[in-house]
Design a protein that fits this description.
The chain has 120 residues and is mainly beta. 0% of the residues lie in helices and 52% in strands. Strands 7-8-3-2-9 form a five-stranded mixed beta sheet, with no helix packed on it. A hairpin with a 3-residue loop joins strand 7 and strand 8.
Length: 120
Amino acid sequence: MLTLISAVTWAQRSSATEAEKNHVFLAIMVPDVSPKDIKLDVQPTYLDFTGYSTSKKANYHVRLDLYKEIDPSASKTNHTSRAVEFVLQKKDLEVEFWPRLLKDAKKVHFLKTDFDKVSF
């Protein structure tokens, strides 16, 4: 049985000239998921995550169909005891921010803005 993710936080930076300043910060909040219990598929148009928490005895899964394309080879992943964090490199250099993270404009209850990483 799969458990829905309780929270995904995100923020972004945009630059028309510097690729390293043109990315999406993303954190999938999953407690006590071991790196060996994670299945991760990062593609240009989506991110698919599955993990198992030994302490909660729960399987987590989320697929995020992204608003625009990213460059998976230039993106980075970091695993902590509380979350799996990503820096996803946007494919297109644009000064404009994405209006949302997901392709579908429908509101998703688990998706929240990470105001600690937002820049205006």
